[in-house]
Each structure stands twice: as C-alpha cells, then as structure tokens.
Amino acid sequence: MVVLAVIFGGLFAVLFGFMLLAYSAVKTTAAPFSLESETSSGARIGIVEAKGTIGEGQQGVDADKLVKLLRKYEKDDDVKAIVLRVDSPGGAVAPSQEIHDAVARIKAHKKIVVSMGNLAASGGYYISAPADRIYAEPGTLTGSIGVIFMHFNVRGLMEWARVDETTFKSGKFKDTLSPFRPVTDTDREEIQGLSDDVYGQFIDAVAKGRGLPEAKVREIAEGRIYTGRKAKELKLVDELGGLDDAVASAWQLAGQSGEPRVQYPPREHEYSLRDLVRGAFSGAFQGAAEGVRSAEPSGLMFMAPSLVH
Q1: Contact, 195 vs 147, CB < 8 A?
Q2: pLDDT tier at 160 (50, 70, 90 boundaries)?
Q3: Cα distance between residue 106 and residue 75, in whole Å
Q4: In sequence order, what DSSP letters do the residues of 262-298 get, joined into one string?
C-alpha cells in the first residue's frame, strides 16, 4: 500500500507540474491579439477562421457563428476586405453550403481572399471556392471534391448477442439503411441518388466559383486530394503562399496602400487552471464517449480521408 501510494503520489505530482506548465503556455497564447482590437477603427482586413470539422459547433466550425462574423465584417465600412483562413477536412453538407453561400453573397461587394492551412479539403474546399482569390502552401492538402455517406451495420452483433429487433413503419423508405438488417438494392439506389445529387451541387459550386467548365471540374474531382502546388496547376487555387500573402493580397484588392492592418475576432474565453486539470482527468472518458458517438451514422458528408504527415 505504501509503495502504491508513493507511485500514485509521484504520478500526480508530475501531472500537476505538467498542468502548471501547460497553463502558463495557454495564458501566454490565449491573450488577446495585439494587431487590432475589436473596437479599433480605420481601414483593416477582417480575419475569419474556419478550423476543424464543419458542423461540429464548439469542437469544430460552427457555421452559424462563422456566418454571423462574416456579416459583421460585411457591414463594417472600416473592414475593407476579408481573409478566410481555412484549416478543415470538411464536414456536414448543409453547414458547408451555408458558409459557401455567405462567402459568395458578400463577395459581390467586398473582397474575400482564402488562406488555406494544412488541410482545406472537401467541405473545406467547398467554402473556399467562391472567394476572389485562394492561397495555399505547396504542401497544403486540398481538393477531395466528393461526397461520402457512412453506414454502420450491427446486425451480426445483434445476432451474436441473441437480441431480436422488430420495426414497424409507415412508408416504404422509412427504415432505409437500418443498421439492424442487410442493405437492400433499394437502400443502395436511394442513397446513391442522394449522393449523386449533392455531388452535382458540389461540382456546380466549384465550376461557378473558379470559373471552370463543369466537365473540367468533373475530370479533376472524384474525391481526389491534391497538394497546393498541384491544385494551382489545376486552377483550384490561385497562388502559393501563407496567411501574410493572403492578407497583403486582400489589402491590395481593396485598393489600400501601406502596411495592412488586421483585425482578428475576439477570443470567446480564456482557459483557467481548473479547466486544464478537469480536462486532463476527464479526457479519457470523454474520448471514449466521442469514439462511440463517432461510430454512429451521420448522413451525407463533405469529408476528406484522414491523412497525416
């Protein structure tokens, strides 16, 4: 018992020390940006960030909040142009389309430049397509123009556990892709029809946004992922460069001279030491719960495969 107490006490001390270091780092990085404050005035570039999976709210890109920020910058006469910083593998279809439509509408009277980070694929590319200009790093992963529908079937597990399931329905297609029975030809036809419809919408959005023939977009689409350098060759992006290049471009497109002034959105909150400690001890349980939830069918998605470098 004494040995166990010493071991666990030592582990807790190490963990607590790590938390203190992490808290110090977060306090440093979570401070408000020094570029321009929320109440600053004068000509400037508004930065909008789309980081994470689209449609996941606080865990990713919240389409409602992002569109509201776009509209806020749209109405601010001092914000001469907008830079949309995209680092996303994509996500849900409707939220991606909502952001895309907002970008396309605002573009009519205020310049919008996209700066792609590490990954701007599928839905991440969808929201980028209508911008006036798109910047990507040579190693950025982008494209993945396609639609995916994930379905999990637990029929075998139910049989193994000797659990019976009975479905009562009104409507021929009400239990399409039920996870408790084999996939039928009717299921395949229905979902393939939905996928083809949304895929066509994606192709159309890219063709219009990039000024490319639909046939050309179909030729380079099909879910393929490209590096930023290859995407430039295919005219899916305009220039190679980072955020600074995108800001300079937006400043120039807006007819401004001199050094660009940039305004970031305000931080929603800062982390406390209690948040970090609580997160450290609850992370494993939350991760397990998220893993279970992520295995559930979530419908049509603009989502790129997981890639690491």
Answers
A1: yes
A2: confident
A3: 10
A4: EEPPPPS----HHHHHHHHHHHHHHHHHHHHHHTS--
Work out whether the CA dihedral 200, 201, 207, 213 comes out positive or negative: positive
pTM given for the model: 0.72
Any idea what DSSP says for residue 241? Answer: -
Residue 286: pLDDT over 80: no
Helices (H), the chain: 2-29, 63-75, 93-106, 123-126, 155-160, 185-210, 214-220, 228-233, 243-253, 273-294
The CA-to-CA distance between both ends of the chain, in Å, stands at 45
pLDDT tens for 264-284 read 987 654 444 444 344 434 333
CA distance 268 to 42: 24
Positions marked active-site: 122, 174
**pLDDT tens, position by position, 95-122:** 999 999 999 999 999 999 999 999 999 9
Q: Are strands 111-121 and 79-88 parallel, antiparallel or unpaired?
A: parallel
Residues 6+ apart with CB under 8 A from 22: 276
Q: How far is CA 144 from the centre of its chain?
A: 13
Element (H, E) at 111: strand 111-121
Nearest to 165 by CA among 185, 182, 189, 184: 182
Mean pLDDT for 195-208 is: 92
